[in-house]
């Protein structure tokens, strides 16, 4: 390995990146935009569900009941109405997600011990959000019911009954803020896509422009050529990584609880695999357009869908679960979330870290083997 | 000393035989012209001899190195200019030259002397800072030549270097080649222009992958009572085609 | 309307900003003539041809093509000439026939003539076997002939060919010129640009344009005799490359180059140069050599003319 040749190739590659505004934008600006966009848009938190109310009973009991919704941070009462048409209009236009109708005999039914029906109308077009909203509504109603029962029992027994009291404590993300969970995963997705996309052009471009033919007629070695091409992109990828981490901490308030050094070391391993994956695609296709399409396809889809970033792996069918073992981002996301939120070290993360190293090693060896200093 | 030697060199692509049983020798310090129409097999021959393409059968040596078994060490001794401009258009003249100087590990005083000399006689010194893509056709070819010569190769392979270059630049280009002959560099020159082939010491006429004639231009012209090589060449091909037809 | 197939320009000039691409040129081309317009890249060839075809307007000067004014009647010119550009404006994803059909539509070839015209062009270009082939799969030579066919679909009386043979091998070029000569015999005027000087031998008359100006004009024979002021000597000597420098630096020798086993020297004064050459051989005791005068090639002529022009203009700049 001749370091002079390596540095000559790196320098050349670097100049080419600097002189091409498009590749520079792809390398620096796009990742930042992606993380900001995704970070804000991909929120799974639901609060302030807009709720419209028609209280046909309008007694103390019904107002008391509604107070529970009013005091919940999950609901936002947008107004009181007195007919179905208004409610329907609000749900149709999306101004209200939920409408609640309290029947005329609510308080009477309640007092005489009959079931007191409350009608809940829910916009189910976004099933995920609707399910969560329904869950919240159920919780509020259950709480209300429990209170009633407790009060009645108190009357009869003159004692304070104590039902089971679930004392839950939530670790790592006590407020269930989804961004704490999403941002580390997002870093993995972005690094994977950008890295493999960046390098997917580098070898193919030289074949297309005819510069590779000149280069392979020189004594330069395969490993020198590939390492030389790898280094500048590694620098860019590393820069993107640091920017993403900083954005995560300062723009999204995601705490960095674990070891930064460990994070950077393991990220480098992941970055190496991702960059080389792009380069391998470039080596095999020898065509920029095919290479970039293939790079997006092979990085974006698996990383987005199968890494555990958007969908929980334990929810997937067994066959698909088996497939996720082949996705390096799966391990990287475990590592990122582990270090970020749980502040764990290699003693816990050794298994995904090892697998990440194995993946990088395999892809680098395949890339070197596949690159030939021959025309055909 | 023999600088280039080919023995039954053959290369097939699927069903097409691009280079068909070529055998020839080029002595050291000679300028040899490989002449033929487009698709005759000139570029394939070049690629075989420069070790960037493997032959289907046959053997070859360039400056004593076997083109298959020693294809990497062979590359220390050769300079190659491919048919398409092989340098980086988004790099400046100087950046390209420095890049290739590094690739060939040319260093120290030798490096700066060599660069100065090459840029000097190719007339590129005033354009050091210009992007290679912004050079004229003739200038690009001279830059390609300068980069292929940076490590003082023993054998120089040029694949249609003056294609699309105007006559004045073409003459300048040839002047540089003459200077190289004085340094005993062997030049292997592929071209489809027969007026240019007249400048070579010996020429090999290649057609459909086969070497139809290999001799001194004057002898070929005499043999076919032709005024120019072009005339002789057309006669040779027509004669061969009528034989092949039978 | 009388058939007019001549070209004539007076003081034709084209400027792009401060740059004069074409500098007040004058020439005439008579009917049925093959007129070569030669010069290095960037000399002004394409700019001139575009002005003549009515694609761009001149900065000043005037000209007529086929009797139509190149400034006022650009539309009529386009209907009456054929133009084949350097890059063969063909559609790669159409077949040979579809390309021809497209151009006959563009030139509004009458419906009842379309088929006959198409067959004639396919025959002329020898494209019979390739009718339904995609143009992208044709080799350079066939594309060139197809492009020529498309340029003459409307039976123009004048055709303009802009570097029609660039990147085409000698045999294909030979065939191409055979077609061109045949067209000229049938009374079509051919205006062709090229930077391959050996090709210029095929022209009836030619003009050499350099840095926007026409610096010489005449038949190939006139170019090589009357216009060429220098003489070319063939010096046959062993190890020519060792003598090249010495001969090139002799006084009166403009240029020296190796040609196979001999050296070609372009000299100002034939007698003086021969004496000087013989002198250096004599001094090193060499007897086995031969110096003969040979006919200049067109390339020799052009290079000499261009070098003379550069020298003159450098001097006039200095003084």
Question: What's the SSE blueprint?
Answer:
The complex is a heterotrimer of chains A (376), B (246) and C (319).
Chain A lengths: L2 H17 L1 H21 L7 E7 L4 H11 L4 E6 L3 H10 L4 E5 L3 H7 L5 E5 L4 H31 L20 H32 L1 H6 L5 H30 L8 H26 L2 H19 L11 H7 L3 H15 L3 H25 L6
Parallel strand pairs in A: 1-2, 1-3
Antiparallel strand pairs in A: 3-4
Chain B lengths: L1 E12 L2 E12 L3 E5 L6 H8 L7 E6 L2 E2 L4 H4 L3 E4 L11 H11 L4 H14 L15 H12 L6 E5 L7 H16 L3 E6 L2 H4 L4 E6 L2 E6 L1 H7 L5 H17 L1
Parallel strand pairs in B: 3-8, 3-9, 6-7, 7-8
Antiparallel strand pairs in B: 1-2, 1-4, 4-5, 9-10
Chain C lengths: L6 E10 L2 E11 L4 E5 L6 H8 L7 E6 L2 E2 L4 H7 E4 L11 H11 L4 H15 L14 H12 L6 E5 L7 H16 L3 E6 L10 E6 L2 E6 L1 H8 L3 E7 L2 H9 L4 E7 L2 E6 L2 H14 L5 E6 L3 H21 L1
Parallel strand pairs in C: 3-8, 3-9, 6-7, 7-8
Antiparallel strand pairs in C: 1-2, 1-4, 4-5, 9-10, 11-13, 11-14, 12-13
Describe the protein:
The complex is a heterotrimer of chains A (376), B (246) and C (319). Chain A is α/β, with parallel strands linked by helices and 376 residues long. Chain A has 14 helices and 4 strands. Chain A folds into 2 domains: 3-43 and 177-370, no CATH class; 49-157, abc type-2 transporter like fold. Helices cover 68% and strands 6% of the residues of chain A. In chain A, helix 2 (21-41) runs antiparallel to helix 7. The mean pLDDT of chain A is 87. Chain B is α/β, with parallel strands linked by helices and 246 residues long. Chain B has 2 domains: 1-74 and 153-212, P-loop containing nucleotide triphosphate hydrolases (Rossmann fold, 3-Layer(aba) Sandwich), CATH 3.40.50.300; 78-152, no CATH class. Chain B contains 9 helices and 10 strands. Chain B has helices at 42-49, 71-74, 93-103, 108-121, 137-148, 167-182, 194-197, 217-223, 229-245; strands spanning 2-13, 16-27, 31-35, 57-62, 65-66, 78-81, 155-159, 186-191, 202-207, 210-215. In chain B, strand 7 (155-159), helix 6 (167-182) and strand 8 (186-191) form a beta-alpha-beta unit. Chain B is globular. The model of chain B has no long low-confidence stretch (mean pLDDT 91). With 319 residues, chain C is an alpha/beta fold. Chain C folds into 2 domains: 7-219, P-loop containing nucleotide triphosphate hydrolases (Rossmann fold), CATH 3.40.50; 229-295, Alpha-Beta Plaits (2-Layer Sandwich), CATH 3.30.70.100. Helices cover 38% and strands 27% of the residues of chain C. Chain C contains 10 helices and 14 strands. Chain C has helices spanning 45-52, 74-80, 96-106, 111-125, 140-151, 170-185, 220-227, 240-248, 270-283, 298-318; strands at 7-16, 19-29, 34-38, 60-65, 68-69, 81-84, 158-162, 189-194, 205-210, 213-218, 231-237, 253-259, 262-267, 289-294. In chain C, the strands form 3 sheets. Chain C has a 6-stranded mixed sheet, with helices on both faces. In chain C, helix 6 links the parallel strand 7 and strand 8. In chain C, helix 3 runs parallel beside helix 5. Chain C starts with 6 loop residues before the first strand and ends with a helix. The model of chain C has no long low-confidence stretch (mean pLDDT 87). At the B-C interface, helix 6 and helix 9 of B face helix 6, helix 8, strand 12 and helix 10 of C.
